[in-house]
Amino acid sequence: MEETISLKELLQTLRKRISLILSITFIAILISGVISYFFLTPIYQASTQLLINQSKNEQATVQYNDVQTNLQLINTYNVIIKSPAILELVIKDLKLDMTAGELNGKITVQNETNSQVVNLSVQDTSATMAAKIANKTAEIFKKEIVNIMSVDNVSILAKAEVADHSSPIKPKPLLNVAIALVVGLMVGVGLAFLLEYFDNTIKNEEEIEKLIGVPVLGTIAIIDDAQMKKIQNSKAKQNASLRGETIGS
Q1: Range of 138's domain?
Q2: Cα–Cα dist 161/91, whole Å
Q3: Alpha-carbon distance values, 196 to 207, 210, 213 (Å)
Q4: pLDDT averaged over the chain?
Q5: CA quadruple 143, 146, 149, 153: dihedral positive or negative?
Q6: Does 190 fall in a domain?
């Protein structure tokens, strides 16, 4: 016979284990908040934009092949921007205490599809330093690309600037806490059902009826010592009262 669980039983399980679920959720939120606010280092981002001008020829009309060539050129530029040939000069000019590989990890270069604009983003623990690295990288790339590829078709559209009240892009404590809340609830509910599944003890007559398939005719109450003494004292008083009435009559 296949055993089914009703919605009422599910709710009863959740109600019975509600303290466990809330405790796990609270611990998850607490740990997430403490780590996000006190242990994770804030990371700031600054971005600058470069325009890769399309090579001009005598024809004013842009052909499909010209567009494809230009896009391939931009992809090449994206690689050159993060190459040691550029980054070593950035490190030297800004006197950075890091290697070209470490600086490479801070820089992200990308462009939108079919766009001649290249976005150069830098992440750093300092908003000011992130802006300095972004601007210096764009400046050196614009200068060195003339020597590297014998072309002068790079323009700086927008320089990276530091806002008065810059906000870090990560960590995001509120988002982390929200994720911890959801994860804590999921773990708590899962653990509650797991404990209920492995709990083979019988707690009331309803479970007995379900287990053996016959109705319960009676139950034996459990009386502790305090209740037993109270019952004995009550009976003793009743007996004393009855004896007094018998003597009086």
Answers
A1: 44-158
A2: 19
A3: 13, 16, 21
A4: 83
A5: positive
A6: no
